[in-house]
Amino acid sequence: MSFDDHRPVAARLTVLSGPSGVGKGSVKALIRERYPWVWFSVSATTRAPRPDEIPGFHYHYYDRAHFEKLAADGMFLEWAQYANNLYGTPRGPIEERLDAGLPAVTEADLQGARQIRQAMPQARLVFLAPPSWDELVRRLTGRGTEDAETIKRRLALAEAELSAESEFDYTITNYSVEQATEELVGLLGSPTQPTEACPVGKTLAATHF
Ligand SMILES: Nc1nc2c(ncn2[C@@H]2O[C@H](COP(=O)(O)OP(=O)(O)O)[C@@H](O)[C@H]2O)c(=O)[nH]1
Ligand SMILES: Nc1ncnc2c1ncn2[C@@H]1O[C@H](COP(=O)(O)OP(=O)(O)O)[C@@H](O)[C@H]1O
């Protein structure tokens, strides 16, 4: 029996995965703008912030020693090395949400999605797919945030990620950010109440560390 089996299904965790450059960040940004009641976990990473990224909003940015200490202390629901950096989902805020009967969404690479599947069989795994390989290359290159060597490494990982699509419960193809956003929000379901992000009597901490 897994540790979340007592929780109602509505309070489940949705995991958003997909290759680098497919549009996960773009979809998350539109959801945050249009559907602010959707609660996203803020992952931790050892990678440096990109110029337009805000610490505590896009990621918690830590050096490797601090990240490894948090991992050793069991502070992550899952964590993994992707390319040369570590990424992890903080455990506390997610457990607080689920224990309060509220849904949560986190982003994770394939290794992280697999760890969450093991730990939480009720979790719903969603794969964001590109319309084509060439379009993925165009998007990743066009973003202009990684050098050629990093792009090559991420595309090599993308091949493995695309071939694991069948492990996911749902695939959403990101033809347009608008369409992919609506499909993902459709899967998440409408909020039971607009105020569900902050139930009375519960303090939902943004982060535990
Ligand atoms: N395991 C795990 N992977 C994550 C987490 N947050 C982000 N990632 C993944 O780490 C990979 C690299 O993310 P990032 O450096 O932001 O690049 P991007 O996907 O190109 O925007 C992507 O596959 C993300 O989905 C997390 O909390 N845990
Ligand atoms: N549906 C789309 N059509 C065209 N360009 C897109 C689409 N979705 C995202 N992009 C662009 O592709 C690039 C990568 O998107 P991003 O959201 O950063 O991907 P990820 O977070 O998955 O790495 C960005 O320049 C973004 O503007």
UniProtKB/TrEMBL annotation:
Its main location: cytoplasm. The keyword Nucleotide-binding applies. It catalyses: GMP + ATP = GDP + ADP. It is found in: Cytoplasm. Keywords: ATP-binding, Cytoplasm, Kinase, Nucleotide-binding, Transferase. One of its GO terms (cellular component) is cytosol. The keyword Cell wall biogenesis/degradation does not apply. GO terms for molecular function: ATP binding; GMP kinase activity. Its EC number is 2.7.4.8. Residues 11-189 form the Guanylate kinase-like domain. InterPro entries: GK/Ca_channel_bsu, Guanylate_kin-like_dom, Guanylate_kinase, P-loop_NTPase. ATP binds at residues 18-25. Belongs to the guanylate kinase family. Essential for recycling GMP and indirectly, cGMP. This is Guanylate kinase. It comes from Stackebrandtia nassauensis (strain DSM 44728 / CIP 108903 / NRRL B-16338 / NBRC 102104 / LLR-40K-21). The lineage of its organism: Bacteria, Bacillati, Actinomycetota, Actinomycetes, Glycomycetales.
